[in-house]
């Protein structure tokens, strides 16, 4: 008879949960853990509390040959209506920050906005742009998150990675400087699917706390004014096409307010597909395809999704 690897996984998770090393849910609906508020049940969702607990879970899953994916705050993903066959691991309970001499070290699960606040508390400038980006440090490094002329590539000097397939390095180690392969909304970690970001090292400059705070407040006010923050979404749905503002193309294609089921092109900001009213992943994907088609047809420009689409299997 074919073995069921979940029968071996459950006692491991139970033991680790009892020891306070993680939390887990079997048959976990993913919608509450995605900023789109969309997604059916994952077989398991796990929240390790520490790096060592995360590494223990990863090694058990590897041994049992169970599919897994890592997420932070779920603010740049679209989970499938059918959920996820395997184990989704969320890093958000791994949130240690260390500070010394202008350098912040943050676990992958640290809130990116929280890291900007910590930088302000230490009188450090360089992370103001992160204030208001609703992701984790791991997700921000993976995506090379950025806003208003700031980008993670400008401040993240080193990423600690677990890389079981040795695509980037052997086992656990540091990927530094240019080797992090940062480009527009991309990093080398996107080409190493098994690699797991454990944390980042941020080199910042001393600044004037009042000026740092004023800049953060200004950027947050601009977000509130321009973005449909009152609806669930995953932020900008598409990447910028070289030489174009994608939101402008979508607006000029006459798509503002266009709807498929409960998904809508935001009337406030055409670059955002929002979950207006109980949207499914299928609604969002169909709308995305319609937008791409119209933009190619009307302007001859191919646009690429920034949101990561996570298949059920
Ligand atoms: C309202 C709103 C505004 C936004 N504004 C911006 C903005 O101004 N600029 C911007 O760049 N983005 C923005 N975003 C998008 C999003 O917040 C960023 O991309 C963020 O960096 C994603 O972080 P996350 O922790 O939520 O990642 P998730 O959505 O959890 O994951 C994103 C990708 O990263 C991978 N990943 C996450 N953590 C790890 C890890 N530890 N190891 C390996 N892979 C990992 C996941 O597998 C997935 O492929 C916005 C989103 C929303 C909803």
Mind explaining what this structure looks like?
By secondary structure, the protein is an alpha+beta fold. The protein folds into 3 domains: 5-90, Uridine Diphospho-n-acetylenolpyruvylglucosamine Reductase, domain 2 (2-Layer Sandwich), CATH 3.30.43; 97-226, Uridine Diphospho-n-acetylenolpyruvylglucosamine Reductase, domain 3 (2-Layer Sandwich), CATH 3.30.465; 246-310, Alpha-Beta Complex (Uridine Diphospho-n-acetylenolpyruvylglucosamine Reductase, domain 1). It contains 7 helices and 18 strands. The strands form 6 sheets. Strands 6-7-13-11-12 form a 5-stranded antiparallel β-sheet, covered by helices on one side. Strands 1-2-5-3 form a 4-stranded mixed β-sheet. Helix 1 (5-18) runs antiparallel to helix 2 (51-63). The model has no long low-confidence stretch (mean pLDDT 96). Bound molecules: flavin-adenine dinucleotide (FAD). The site of flavin-adenine dinucleotide has 33 residues, from strand 3, helix 4, strand 9 and strand 13.
């Amino acid at each position: 008879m074919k073995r069921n690897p979940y029968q071996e996984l459950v006692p491991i998770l139970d033991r680790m949960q009892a020891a306070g090393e993680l939390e887990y849910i079997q048959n976990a609906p993913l919608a509450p853990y995605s900023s789109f508020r969309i997604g059916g049940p994952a077989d398991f969702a796990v929240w390790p509390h520490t790096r060592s607990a995360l590494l223990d879970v990863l090694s058990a899953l590897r041994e049992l040959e169970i599919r897994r994916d890592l997420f932070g705050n779920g603010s740049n993903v679209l989970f499938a209506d059918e959920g996820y066959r395997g184990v989704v691991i969320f890093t958000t309970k791994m949130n240690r920050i260390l500070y010394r001499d202008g350098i912040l070290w943050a676990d992958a699960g640290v809130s990116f906005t929280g890291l900007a606040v910590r930088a302000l508390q230490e009188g450090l400038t360089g992370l103001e742009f992160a204030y208001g980006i609703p992701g984790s440090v791991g997700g921000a490094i993976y995506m090379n998150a950025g806003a208003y002329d700031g980008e993670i590539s400008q401040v993240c000097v080193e990423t600690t990675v677990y890389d079981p397939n040795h695509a980037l390095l052997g086992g656990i180690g540091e990927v530094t400087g240019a080797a992090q392969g940062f480009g527009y909304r991309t990093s080398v970690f996107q080409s190493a699917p098994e690699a797991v970001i454990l944390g980042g090292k941020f080199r910042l400059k001393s600044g004037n706390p009042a000026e740092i705070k004023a800049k953060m407040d200004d950027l947050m006010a601009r977000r509130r004014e321009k973005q449909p923050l009152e609806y669930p979404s995953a932020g900008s749905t598409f990447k910028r096409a070289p030489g174009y503002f994608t939101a402008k193309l979508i607006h000029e294609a006459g798509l503002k307010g266009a709807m498929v089921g409960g998904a809508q092109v935001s009337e406030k900001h055409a670059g955002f597909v929002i979950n207006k009213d109980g949207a499914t992943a299928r609604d969002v994907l169909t709308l995305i395809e319609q937008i791409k088609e119209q933009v190619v047809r009307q302007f001859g420009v191919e646009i690429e999704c920034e949101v990561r689409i996570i298949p059920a299997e």
